[in-house]
Amino acid sequence: MSKPKVAFYWCASCGGCEEAVVDLAENILKVVEAVDIVFWPVALDFKRKDIEAMPDKSIAVTFINGAIRLSEQEEMVKLLRKKSQLIVAFGSCAHLGGVPGLANFWDRESIFNRAYKTTPSTHNPEGIVPQEKVTVDGKELTLPKFYNTVFRLDQIIDVDYYLPGCAPPPDLVMNAINAILEGKLPPKGTVLSPNKSLCDDCKRNETKPEKLTIKEIKRPHEIMLDPEKCFLAQGVICMGPATRTGCGERCIEANMPCRGCFGPTDQVIDQGAKFLSVLASIIDVNDEKEIEKVMDTIVDPAGTFYRFSLPSSLMRRKRMPSVADNEK
Amino acid sequence: MSNNRITIDPITRLEGHGKIEIFLDEKGNVDKAFLQIPELRGFEQFAVGRPAEEMPRITPRICGVCPTAHHMASTKALDDLFKVEPTPVAKKIREFIYSTFMLEDHTLHFFFLGGPDFVVGPQAPAAERNILGVLNKVGLEIGKKVIEIRKQCRDIISYLGGKVIHPVCGLPGGVSKGLTEEDRKKFLEVAKAGVEFAQFALKIFDDIVLKNKEYVDIVTGDVYYHRTYYMGLVDENNKVNFYDGYIRVVDPNGKEYAKFKCQDYLNHIAEHVEPWSYIKFPYLKNVGWKGFVDGEDSGIYRVAPLARLNASDGMATPLAQEAYEKMYETLGGKPAHNTLAFHWARLIEALYAAERMVELLEDKEITDPNIRNIPTETPKEGIGVVEAPRGTLIHHYKTDDRGILTEANLIVATVNNAAAINMSIRRAAEKLIKNGNVSDGILNMVEMAFRAYDPCHACATHSLPGDMPLIINIYDADRKLIHQFKRNVK
Amino acid sequence: MSNEKFEPKIVGFLCNWCSYTGADLAGTSRMTYQPNLRIIRVMCSGRVDPQFIFKAFKEGADGVLIAGCHPGDCHYKEGNYKALRRYKLIKKLQSEFGIEDERIRLEWISASEGAKFQEVCNEFTETIRKLGPFNSKKGGKNE
Ligand code: SF4
Ligand code: SF4
Ligand code: SF4
Ligand code: FES
User: Is the CB of A15 less than 8 angstroms away from the CB of B147?
Assistant: First the structure.
């Protein structure tokens, strides 16, 4: 029997997810023995023709990391979908939209303006911005289209499994690969990490009082962070209650609160809204004026509660006259 | 035409995929060559509205290959923003984490990436020019050592930073987690092993590259040669520093051209925009943008290991200083314009990083529990700079008085080299394409040119199963595709 | 689209014990009020998950009303305070999604306040009518 073909591919990615694969260290050699890696990581157009030439569904599994923001990424993942039996969305960006998804609070024009015109070091008196097609000294050069909106992978193609985390921890990656190799696959659509909240596994949970109540919110740099006490009990925003477990509480181990990179549990559609709800419940103030005061100490709730999941939120992006809901 | 792309690290890591387009004139000589970077993610825009203290957790997502560099630059920008001096031990811990990161990044690069070109040999078949080829040549034991050192360094960063990919420990005025005496002892072992390892890597370079005339000729040859300005951080003695100091620029003759506080970068650096790439091209503002040309009159400068060494007067640790002197002796003085000497400089820097780890850990103060000063000033504007493995990295934030970002400007390490990389590719092409005759060596040569600028780790993934996939398209005067070179494109 | 007269779609989450009864009273008392409100009965305003609110907008609502018992009167004691806190927090982030402040409204309406219900409903409808449709570019063509 020939070895199963495996592919890795990346879209709008920081490369950290690729590192996560390399971090499998010696395990990677076992993987290499068991499978035939057709590409890893591949740059779009390289093997595009070759992928096109492959029979449909001939790749056993393709791991895709990064969000979708360019036309060529969309084209490529659609092609890979056709050629692969399974698609795994690898890492927060593919799973939820990730940090690059914060760009959904803006549109293409404002992003271009900032990058190419208004940043203080940019010297651009003619107001040049990159063009999809441009002729330079008679030579025509093209760039892929930059979308107004960042998408997570399953908003573009059908996805079979999700590996959460920014980046996913090695043990989860290994478990996933083993499960696939052994054919012990959970139901389609499963997020490959336990379906309970981070708080359930967090050591600091024990320090949470019976009924958690807080009267003010502190930003992490404003107080000495207690290395043992639950962050929320210290009044510091920690996304633990609205976040899926499985990361090993990595940030908390470094004495910093969770920012939710694993996304929510299965029961939750919108991680930010869920956290908003949790936070509103534990704030122990009832007077309207007092409530407003506390709320004022919560800076940037949108960018914090949706740090990794804005493209996955119910609203997906900011509504702007320049961009329609699903527009690219 | 969609088949004319190339993955070029580190740019690939940084801003997505790259592609090279080479155009010939009527005579069949190179008319134009372009390296295009077709990706942009817009961090400078979506940083706006975020709380400043979250920036060290947001900006590392620019590059998951050197997240620690972004994390540190960002954290330092916060010190400046909140006008809070980190406690002495906090500075040490940060520099320790940072040195660990540099050691890991540099040695790994040498063995997994740039190294194979030399260790296995530039003429070796592509299938052997990878980590496995390196292991064949230098022995499996050494391979194990590489993996071991890398793992130990990464474990240290995970322990102190939470995650090695996107650490979280930096706060204005300090760090979130300190070291115990036990940690110190344990890490000191790693640091010492690191020094040994870096020396050993230099010895490999010596044995395999320097003792081989053919290699030396390539290193010193004119294909990989650009007379440019050089930039790097230096300490008060003009010694190379990764974590802090002044930005120093030397001209193509090695004379100090400028030395300035990081906060003054806008007086010295500007960025040029081209419509055919999503990447910007930084240059020295006071020299000016003259297009993709080298020499004194062109503001193009280079960054990263060789540039840092060129821009300094030496290394702050003894063994690294020795190696530094030896390098310039061999290359015939300072500055060295040989692009391939970036590899050599990288190993010298790895040695410095390891020596610095030892120094920091031998100082028992590093276990002091006083790891943070709480900021009290009203924030307004902050600039933080570090030397990333791939060059000078600048984070610049402005905020309202609650510390919410109103503006961000980032000059990312590799971007500094963007213009030079374009020139290096063009030069390699010019040397290798004459009268329409295209030498097969072009792939190797071009690839080596940009690899020297430090393709990132993740590129190791290219190297494991084979070599870096690469396509170069060559067009004739009628813009017809006449050649396409492919490597490792199945 | 532009020629059609805009009829706002408003979703109202009304607590069972007070506000829904108040609305009922308005109905049985034959008070006339704008027909734009689609009422969803919930047990308590404290049960209105913020996800419901975003969902409503996503599904095409132009405005969302949450109504509960007056402070101190909640059947579950504290539910309406929770609603108030959520509401205040949503106010802080809704603009990031491009949802204008006026599109989400919280009101206390008791079982006996049929008239207040009528007034809130009419007034809110007018506010939204003036603001115009929320998803103004919805259905925009994919490029
Ligand atoms: S999930 Fe995180 S590590 Fe992976 S590509 Fe996105 S930002 Fe990078
Ligand atoms: S809120 Fe954060 S610190 Fe507290 S138990 Fe949950 S995950 Fe742990
Ligand atoms: S603690 Fe939270 S943010 Fe950190 S790795 Fe875990 S899920 Fe992600
Ligand atoms: S029951 Fe009416 S608000 Fe709680």
Answer: no
